[in-house]
Amino acid sequence: MELKIASLARRPDLEGPMWNMADSWPEFMRHDPIGWAHVGRIAAQFPEYVLVATDERERVVAKAFSVPFRLAAEGRGELPATGWDQVLLWAFSDRRAGRIPDTVSAIEIAVDPALQGRGLSARMLAALRDNARELGFREVVAPLRPSGKHHEPHAPVHEYAYRTREADGLPHDPWLRVHVRAGGVVDSVAPASMTIAHSVERWREWTGLPFDTDGPVEVPGALTPVECHASRGYAVYVEPNVWVRHSLV
Hints:
There is one protein chain. The chain is α+β, with helices and mostly antiparallel strands. The chain has one domain: Aminopeptidase. It is built from 7 helices and 9 strands, in the order βααββαβαβααβαβββ. Strands 1, 2, 3, 4, 5, 6, 7, 8 and 9 form a 9-stranded mixed β-sheet that branches.
């Protein structure tokens, strides 16, 4: 399909349609407090790092969010174990402090569910890489959410992240495979990339599950079981991601 990709800095008129685009995120994923506080600010403060794809009818069909940050800042240097949440905090704290960024992190690549399976995510990843290069960066990193991990919630993420196919040596996970084919390299695991903690009542609303017994609960769409503390009235989900590095030189 014909696809036009532009940054929000160039097409600010697409911001409203972008937010209205359908997606396939599980409901509980919308309630990470750091994401809730920061993702909406990316469009306002980093519009040149937000890409929006439209089809022939000017309908928004995909989006890619990224943020700049300074990996070489004092006390950093390595990609954080707290992944997605941490890189968002770094990006906005660096902006406030006036630190010059040296790296771009992908935050989200999403495709309209009706158009998934047509290679749009790979095209958006390529566009995100090209955009970072045009902005003068030498590296893109991504705290990647493995798309197949929710089928194996009990599999250790440190094993899953490095699992490969015998036929071609590419990653077992489909989304990791897209990144590696694009030139990315699996760097490390972020075991606590996102943390969502709330009352069992709210988890029941989000999932339709009882959450009435202490212990792990398998939730559709979750990469690991949610730890339920029903006797104390709350449950906690800690999502692991996989850091992938993309050299742009």
